[in-house]
Amino acid sequence: MSEHDQVLTRIVSRDLSADINPLGAELFALRDRGGRELLWNGDPRFWKSRAPILFPVVGALAGDQYRLDGEVFTLPRHGFARNKLFSLVKRTTASALFRLSWDKETLRVYPFHFELELHFALADATLHMVASIKNLENDKAMPASFGFHPALCWPLPYGEPRSVHVLRFEKDEPAPIKRVNAEGLILPRTLPTPLVKRGLQLRDELFKDDAIIFDNIASRRLRYGAERGPQLDIAFPELPQLGVWTKPGAGFICIEPWHGFADPEGYLGDLRHKPGIALLPPGVVREFAMSISLLA
What we know:
- Helix content is 2%, strand content 40%.
- By secondary structure, it is mainly β.
- The protein has a single domain, classed as Beta-galactosidase, Chain A, domain 5 (Distorted Sandwich).
- The strands form five sheets. Strands 7-8-9-10-22-18-17-14-15 form a nine-stranded antiparallel beta sheet, with no helix packed on it. Strands 4, 12, 13, 16, 19 and 20 form a six-stranded antiparallel beta sheet that branches.
- A hairpin with a 6-residue loop joins strand 19 and strand 20 (252-259).
- The mean pLDDT is 96.
């Protein structure tokens, strides 16, 4: 099923409008009040996605497989949610709620009964996104990771060149970063943080070896944009990891708050014990939120 087969759901506020694709509950467009695009257009020459939802894993698994209670299961990079059709449960002028529930197909690759909801809401110049994950099992904890993956326009549509766009973190980030190997697995070695005085000056060469991964991040908020133009304020209060990624030369920068990340190189343990995993007890709901605010 292709993205073009789906009817997009539009929500609007005074300052923003957004389109959501029920395929993957993916944010498909985000525009300011003048109609300027803030989200990548999905040009397949670089990357056909726009803002996929990552569940029940984030990143790559070694050999696309994981182990659970002595069994081996197969999952693609970033899991299956981004390729599943969500149901539109509720809609208002400024909000929409989408739901994905377990089915026979998901049980074959992820043996848990779950419910995943994505709530999108616009309030003035802010887009709020909240993911709710519910473990419907009666007697077992459910291991899961979750991530947002929005590709924001780089440069933003306000006349400043790519070269002056910066990520400005709310706190000092002295911890080293991690990178991935050619298979997308976390390398054991760490590298010094590329931030200078809480700022990451964006340039293509930073991403020649794929994403920059902050797995021990102090900040839960950052600003993106040129110092002299309108900027985006991005908050992710419950998500303890952050990936930053682009394909060099492309017109987007992905700012990706996560709970969890790819398999460490050589990891052969049970999914329940994987670094970064969330364990949801029976009947428990976990919420993960991200907001994007346009600052004039």
